[in-house]
Amino acid sequence: MGDVLxxxxxPVLVFGGGIYAACDCWWRRRHPAPPSPYTHRxxxxxxxxxxxxxEEIVDDAYAALGPFYDAPAASDPAEPPTEPASVSSxxxxxxxxxxxxxxxxxxxxxVQKP
Length: 114
What we know:
2 helices
């Protein structure tokens, strides 16, 4: 009788394991785990790094091309324009010109029919 019980216990254990797996799957679908806070923190840090890099790119571009867009000073018109500032010298934020009220945004383009 001992061999028969041993032989019948194998299908019972397999069937019990299948029932357990089905119940566990159902439970996990109904109660998902909360998102990891480390994932959100990593996303925020990556966003901050991206913003710092973008700010550095804009500052470098302004340092290189800013003199071309500045209002011309009251100087001799025959005098050639000065060279733009080098890329390595970055102006501080307070030295940037503020937007002026006399420069309004351009009107929207007219819609063209094909």
